DNA sequence: CTGTTAGCGCTTTCAA
DNA sequence: TTGAAAGCGCTAACAG
């Protein structure tokens, strides 16, 4: 491996001078600089970030921890984070927790051990609290994405889950639906809880009685075992006329289940959900959705994180909470009901 | 920051003993080990991977460079790589080159500077050659994924693009199609070239004359400017009856273009493509595709890479080339033609 | 079973 | 404008 000492020897200068050339610090004569540059090229020198980070006590690395790398909401978010990080000269590394608190724990350990300068986290759920406390204890700045965690104050970028749930439900009631189900993620996740709240409020506002049997709380990621959605349908005596899915992945699961039972959307069942399906929704623009600005979640979150990192030492700013609005994209997965 | 020296001092042992406890090396009395462990917990010690990598001259990090993080083929591949890396105790970091040779270059520099132990690359194209040569020069083991680069021998995991193109075309001819177009990625990419070859061979085998005007070579990622596909349609006097898309992203672009022109699939135009659309294809299982085993690309590639890393020093093995078979999933995007 | 020494590649501080 | 010394946190090699 070529080090600054190899360069120094061959260029007839000290290692310190090489370091100065690399980092453009201090005063160097043009001649020396040129010579050092030439030798660096000849020897194919590549700086060693680890050695550098070790002495500088900072890595210029940001870490993005998402919960589902196959979900276009998160990959689009990742693109936003990538662009923002690059713009500010940070490198961005990704991790994928698969909605698992345990895998998340492993990543937190890795993040700590690799001394990332900051972290963007879409927490797996409320049980992520200890992980966040660990980050806080080690003074690693972080920004929460898409979900909050009770008991932990921090910067956070959110959608307005409650409001959006209300919009979705009212879209359905305005088409004559009264028996509206909610197939939601785990109540251990703040966004799922708020979506349930919004759903209940919207029902009340529209004089529809809340019926517990129309709510299924499962996981935002499909479980591999026999589908809970399957079983939920099995025990349903009278089906709803419409379903709100807590996210895009659940919407797909619902559609599969409906297909398997020969139930047509929207003729026999209306369906709406949170989050669009990514580029592939274009194939058949079919599902009516709340389209959150995934890219902005990543971009803004990263900017907030970098602000926080660079603020180090200056007066502590209060925590920032950014709530990004979302549009409803109306397509054709909702039928209009005539019956009262 | 807590270091092994802090632990050592508080536990009344030397730093070396702490190091041994952390790494489970050497012989340590149970009593000492217990005490060191206790102090580590009390002080919330987190090992510093950078310091460790610096002395060990290895990082236990693998880097996966893909060309499109929003393409489910690559995210599924990433899941496979993740699982394989984890199984062997390596950490996996991702980068996204966006099909850009320049961004790829940046990542290669980062990879070199952070001293990853090995790299999995889906190269942006033939122009990636210098990047691979850089890796080779610095003795960083790498495995190519999904695409080869002329002039560079290495381990590689591929699909059988030629054979699969043939299957796709013959599926169309067997349904009576004779005017079959190919909308393909850049000829700078090996898989695109082979797909074109397979297409031509299949036409010949079925006594269909090759017609240049039915081939469009564009990019595997949609360009932001006015769609080339748009313009290609514009200058077409007699439309084909079927289209083979070089990958899933292009298929989506084709569908959008067709929709905009009010052309129905499959009634007025049949369409098939390479690579499935990920979980979301389930919503409307519509497109007939060659479904490559994306997960296996990542899993096997990672295993090959780790083999290569661990072989260090032992006799050089010849380069391995793994070709993964793919199944055609027949859905309903192909119409049967009666006309001869 | 445990400790001492030296050094991984780099930058900060101080001196020339 | 340049250099020498020290140290970031850790572990290999050797000594006890």
UniProtKB/TrEMBL annotation, chains A, B:
Residues 2-56 form the HTH lacI-type domain. SUPFAM superfamilies: lambda repressor-like DNA-binding domains, Periplasmic binding protein-like I. SMART domains: HTH_LACI (SM00354). InterPro entries: HTH_LacI, LacI/GalR-like_sensor, Lambda_DNA-bd_dom_sf, Peripla_BP_I. GO terms for molecular function: DNA-binding transcription factor activity; transcription cis-regulatory region binding. Keywords: DNA-binding, Repressor, Transcription, Transcription regulation. CDD domains: HTH_LacI (cd01392). This is LacI family transcriptional regulator. It comes from Cohnella terricola.
């Amino acid at each position: 491996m070529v080090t600054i000492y190899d360069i120094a020897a061959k260029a007839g200068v000290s290692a310190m001078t090489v370091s100065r050339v690399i980092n453009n610090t201090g005063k160097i004569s043009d001649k020396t600089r040129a010579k050092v540059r030439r030798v660096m090229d000849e020897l194919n020198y590549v700086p060693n970030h680890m050695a550098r980070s070790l002495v500088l006590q900072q890595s210029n690395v940001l870490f993005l921890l998402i919960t589902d790398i196959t979900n276009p909401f998160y990959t689009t978010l990742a693109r936003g984070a990538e662009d923002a990080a690059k713009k500010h000269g940070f490198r961005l590394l990704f991790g994928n927790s698969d909605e698992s608190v345990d895998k998340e724990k492993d990543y937190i350990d890795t993040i700590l051990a690799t001394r990332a300068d900051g972290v963007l986290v879409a927490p797996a759920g409320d049980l992520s609290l200890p992980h966040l406390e660990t980050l806080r204890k080690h003074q690693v700045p972080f920004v929460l994405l898409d979900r909050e965690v009770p008991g932990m104050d921090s910067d956070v970028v959110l959608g307005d889950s409650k409001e959006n749930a209300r919009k979705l439900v009212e879209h359905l009631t305005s088409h004559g639906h009264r028996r509206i189900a909610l197939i939601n993620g785990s109540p251990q996740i703040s966004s799922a809880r708020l979506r349930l709240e919004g759903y209940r409020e919207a029902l009340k506002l529209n004089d529809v009685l809340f019926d517990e049997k129309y709510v299924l709380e499962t996981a935002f990621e499909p479980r591999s075992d026999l589908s809970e959605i399957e079983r939920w349908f099995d025990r349903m005596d009278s089906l709803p006329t419409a379903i709100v899915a807590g996210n895009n992945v659940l919407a797909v699961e619902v559609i599969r289940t409906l297909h398997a039972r020969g139930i047509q959307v929207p003729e026999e069942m209306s369906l709406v959900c949170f989050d669009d399906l990514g580029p592939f929704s274009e194939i058949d623009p079919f599902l009516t959705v709340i389209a959150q600005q995934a890219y902005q979640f990543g971009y803004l979150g990263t900017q907030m994180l970098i602000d926080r990192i660079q603020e180090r030492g200056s007066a502590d700013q209060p925590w920032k909470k950014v709530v990004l609005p979302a549009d409803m994209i109306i397509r054709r997965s909702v039928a209009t009901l005539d019956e009262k």
